[in-house]
User: What shape does this take?
Amino acid sequence: MEPLPAIRRIVMLGPPASGKGTQGVRLAAALGVPHLSAGQLLRRSVAEGDPYGLAELLSKGELVPDELMYALIAPALHDGFILDGFPRTATQARWLDEFLDPRGWQVQAAVEIAVDSGALAARMVLRATHQHRADDRPEVFLHRLQEYEREAPMLRAHYGRLLITVDGLDSEDEVFQRLLGAIRARTPAPAGRSTARAGFDVESVAPST
Ligand code: AMP
Assistant: This one.
């Protein structure tokens, strides 16, 4: 079995219904780090009595104010994470860097799952029939998609050389293998081998299981 990459702090980017949640959960299990979903944190808060009054924002697909996002995300961050749905804007990305830097927990990779909007619409219809999310109604989904497309160029620019773009069409397994392969390819080989690439000061390690 190939060794797993020792990259353990990843942000997942990608439009709604791109599969970043599903892939994020699998990646977290494979790397042995927690999966933190911003959307799930928010939906849980709504389900637990909605102390911050978020239900309406979420049902309209509007972004939750930054200060609240920071207050919810900060306590959940540790030296390993797959962060899904955060950051969604370059402002949030800068906040994240400023939070992580002094702790030595810098983001090591930003994975964007790329899916064209036609395929996304089909997935949204399917998901809406299974999960009944208020924000999967067509007009709200479109709004979330536009929101993503507006912010994505800034996020891509922010992450620069840390960005890994993975084609998100094809089966869940195929996308996952592609994702792991792309992360491995960015991980330098252990000292003494000449295939190391620039950008990551991490080592490959054997899986812990
Ligand atoms: P998601 O499950 O990631 O699609 O997120 C569902 C909804 O939660 C989004 O449409 C936003 O309303 C809100 N949300 C999720 N992440 C963020 C974020 N980083 N900043 C602001 N709002 C967010």
In short: DSSP finds eight helices and five strands in the chain. The pocket of adenosine monophosphate is lined by residues 16, 38-39, 42, 57-58, 61-64, 69, 85-86, 88, 92, 135, 144 (CB under 6 Å).
